[in-house]
Amino acid sequence: MPREAEISLNEREFLLQALREGVRLDGRAFDEFRPLGLSFGEEDGVADVQLGRTRVVVRISCEVTMPFPDRKFDGIFTISTELSPMASAAFEAGRSTEQETLLSRLLEKAIRRSSALDTESLCIVAGSKCFSLRADIHVLDFDGGLVDTCCIALLAALRHYKRPDVSVNGSEVRVWDTRERQPIPLTLLHHPFCVTFGYYTEPEGKEILLLDANLIEGQCSEGEVVLTVNKYGELCQLAKYGGATVDALALLNCARVATEKVKVLDQFVTDKLSEDAKKRDIGGLMAELSAENER
Fold first, then answer.
1. Hey, is 208 helix, strand or coil?
2. DSSP code for 164
3. pLDDT digits (tens, 9 = 90+) for 209-231
């Protein structure tokens, strides 16, 4: 089974010694993200996010289908992840790795189980018709920070996507083309972001926590702490991976830092969405379509 090339003992000791002296090899502070970039595709619901050298593309699509028998008033939302060998030698096409399974679980808990997406708004006719929403996550390049990058891309794509408008006349359901009626944005109740900290233990027992560890830093870490927080400071998820213990006060500090970073991330995505909306609204076309919908 392919795996990522491991760093040498000298590189590991050099990096750990630098961290003990309060220095990261790329010059960042311990609580600083790498440069973040976000762009949108020509279609609604396509987001391309770069965090450092890690790059993820998310595409949202939907179709009309039948709801689950035990969830008659809810639509369907599924997340599919693909870790391509193009992103890293550790990934293999057609084979699910432990990292891919872990990524899917974290995103599932962060977005779906936290009720960030209002699935009731995807229902068309109770027990008969609903929208089935699908998010395809493609990892194009990997240099650490995978969970955070995928979560940012997924949220940005959901906020960018607009589903087709529908009309119900008796038992007949009509899905309108986007050229006939303005598509409708998804209903998101809140915007939870994942923030990952790598942790290291010094010989004296003191803990070091790094925000947004890159690939080399991740290979040297003893584990990870993933917090999912929204801009209101609500903690939606806390996950810890690795055998080393983490002090409770350190976790509280991580939650404080994560809350501040999430506010910045949420504003960053909002600004990018506004810029994209201005580019698409050529000659007030969206306002004209909106008026057509009202008529």
1. strand
2. P
3. 999 999 999 888 888 999 999 99
